[in-house]
Amino acid sequence: MSPWAAFLGLALSLVFAPQGVSAGPPQLVAQTVAPGSEASLTTLDRDAALTGSQAAVGRALPPMLLRDRYGKPVELSRLRGKPLLVNFIYTGCFQVCPTITRNLQKAVEGTVNALGAERFTIVSIGFNQPFDSPQAMNSYALQQGVRLPNWLFLSPEVGDVDALTAAFGFSFVQNAAGFDHLNQLTLVDGDGIIVRQIYGESFSADMLVEPLKALVVGSALPRQNAVTELLDRVRILCSVYDPKSGRYRIDYTLFMEIGGFLTFLAGLGYVVWRERRRKVAT
């Protein structure tokens, strides 16, 4: 890596570094519904949510009992033995969750073709209890056209939701528009240990195939490079909840702040360079 690339990576990492956020309950912020309006919605502090999400890496699957879309009990810890892709949804969502499910299915279909459906399992968990019942989860799966045999739709007990979501580092908050939640896909190895968090509404096959291949054959997980990690942070921290559409959009003000910060660093570097040249000349 060139010195300039390393310098840029360091600068961006400083911009996106968590500011002393603990891995406790997600912090909340009030977001204005529209410019000039006094109405606001409670939304997640995305920096705190990301920190809590990353803190879950290394944890084991919690020993909780859930029910599948047909009402049969499924003990989460008994899913060990093959890699898992786990995400959280709520069936009353009409924009983000269906989009994530459809995009995940497209990406996973390519992974199934490469590895075989019997080599890994996808798990979608309904966190809005008691409304995300087995019947509701079954209807949701049918509406989204999910046909893969290795995809489970599970419903936890009402009293287990907080502990379950905390174990996976998944943050959500209810507001007048539904739920503001982290768009997170959790990768779990065959021993039931959380090894990676993947973020966003869309997932390419490349994001899933290589890590799953490594876990299936028992080799080390491919390391994410610094650019990928920074893009993950940008994907989360530059996304804000749009209460009008019920979807997430890019907040370009953060890019402007980054641009200003990099401009400041460039100016500072130029001053240092010019001063060094002056000293050499004298």
UniProtKB/TrEMBL annotation:
Domain of life: Bacteria
Pfam family, one: SCO1-SenC
Disulfide bonds listed in the record: C93-C97
Coiled-coil intervals: none
PROSITE patterns: THIOREDOXIN_2
Keywords on record: Copper, Disulfide bond, Metal-binding
Gene Ontology MF terms in the entry: metal ion binding
UniProt similarity note: Belongs to the SCO1/2 family.
The name this protein goes by in its record: Electron transporter SenC
Organism the protein comes from: Denitratisoma oestradiolicum
